[in-house]
Amino acid sequence: FRVVQESLTNVRKHAGPDATAEVEVREDGADLVVTVADDGHGAAGSPTSGGLGLVGMRERVAVHGGTLDVGPAPGGGWQVRARIPR
After folding, report:
1. d(Cα 28, Cα 39) in Å, to the nearest integer?
2. What's this model's pTM, rounded to 2 decimal places?
3. Whole-number pLDDT of residue 75
């Protein structure tokens, strides 16, 4: 839940006023995969610069043995994908 919350907060802050976001939750084998992607402008610089939001998300996911990938979304915008073992 916190990964989705923080990702949507980042969309609001960084993707531009007309951006929309899509949240996908799915099972992939033994993993739960949560993806939040926006269609905005993406991050304006290093994804780890500024606040601690991405660091906190990585730590929360890692505690559960998962991984967090952050970067440009296919087709534009930005995406955050958490993969957590069930």
Report:
1. 24
2. 0.84
3. 82
